[in-house]
Amino acid sequence: MAAQGLDVGTEPVRATPKIRLERVSKRFPLPRGGELRVLERLDLVVEEGALLSIVGPSGCGKSTLLNMLAGLEPASEGRILVGGKEVGPGRGTVRVGYVFQQPRLLSWRTLRGNVLLPLEEMGLSRAEREARADRYLALVGLQEFAHYYPLQVSGGMQQRVAIARALAVEPEVLLADEPFSALDEITARRLREEFVRIWQTTGQTVLFVTHSIREAVFLSTRVVVVTPRPARIYLDVPVPIPHPRAYEDDRLFALEREITREFLRMEETVAPHAGIP
Amino acid sequence: MGWRSGAVRLVGIAGMLMVWAGAASLLPDTILPGPSPVLQTIWRNLHQPETFYHIAVTVRRVLVGMGLALVAGTVVGVVMGISRVGEWVLDTWVLVGLTIPAVVYGIVCILWFGLQDLAAFVAIGVSAFPAIAINMWQGVKAIDLSLVHMGKAFRLSRRALVLKVVIPQTVPYLLAAVRYALGISWKIATVVELIGLSSGVGYMLHYWYGLFSMRQVLAWTLTFTGVLVLFEFVVLKPMDWWVTRWRPRVST
Description:
The structure holds two protein chains of two kinds. By secondary structure, chain A is α/β, with parallel strands linked by helices. Chain A contains seven helices and ten strands. Chain A has a domain at about 15-95 and about 210-275: P-loop containing nucleotide triphosphate hydrolases (Rossmann fold, 3-Layer(aba) Sandwich). By secondary structure, chain B is an all-alpha fold.
């Protein structure tokens, strides 16, 4: 397959920034006083068209970061800009597509109905909505299953629908929160390859949260490692290997080893302190 | 459904009839008449327009009372499910309401509203209401919040979130509540008719009880049971099938 991909991974500096985090902090008050510091003065620029993975220990606030980008949670400090617009509750929103760890489909709607759900809120004509839903279902290879219900298809297919739903809103950014971690490895591999193909065809900017370094290295144009709570950026590595990639690529293995080594060193040096008294 | 389930059902009914006939052969007719005299009585009753009048009266009372209970129970149940204050204020009363014997509601309503339909409507509504409220309360509490989160992430309006994500999740509970309410309502209806009204199936049961006719008592009971079973198959089952058509069937 010819890779006519947007080869942005190699030259991130010149591409236009799509997401910009400026000294973003997030704290949650604790019920017994004190506060939980989740993010600590995070600075990050994600260039347009990038597939950026965020890797960190579990519970380090990766999902919180995605929720903030989706405008569901306010930042305690700092600014979040997506496509030049500030986001956050009460500050404005941009359209995001969100793929969760679980498919989170409405089981009483058909696969097509699930893709249509967010489109029904966007003021599109019926014909346009349906054309879009069908287009994105076809993109994930499910056009023939459009009229099935979620519980009638496999977990992998359900997750494809979730991806189609997120893409169909034609979002500014696509947020993915460990979307393949609940699937068996074979299905996950196939979906990762497909995800790369879809990303290349759509040119979406993707923010991909995962705890798997291998997955991050295989997928991304850039891997960011964050520390345990409060999360700060520990490592920021480009992955200058053109897509589509092979799982067995030695360069990927080398990079995975390197990042893993750094990751372990980080866990030794950065004592996890969450601000709990 | 299909022919097999139908055949199994028929075998079940035939078995019941045989047990009944066996027991009836050992007992005098005044204690337990057999299936055939009772069925003959039903057949004869069905040729009298009066029978349909009494059935219609009771059906109307059941449906109106149940409707009241469904509306009130759903509102209270949903409030209890989504508001903690609502739960604190209401849960004791719902539980108290559930504990009070339905006959008490029947007596009180007849004393308050007199010997008329209104007494039946209110008594049925009040009796069936707590069970529905509890069902809907549980239904709202069982809502999958991760789906609500999904809806918010995709910028669904509040209205769309309630109509398209929250309400559909409570439908199975609502349906269970309807079934339950129907069972309760019909029992209360007969009690109220028996105590204080001069029409309906409960009144007819009382009448034949007074004449000591076991055959007619059974005939009327079976007739109305038939009406309820019909309702189940003609209304509830298709509705059930329609709202859960997305669920893969467990058995074949």
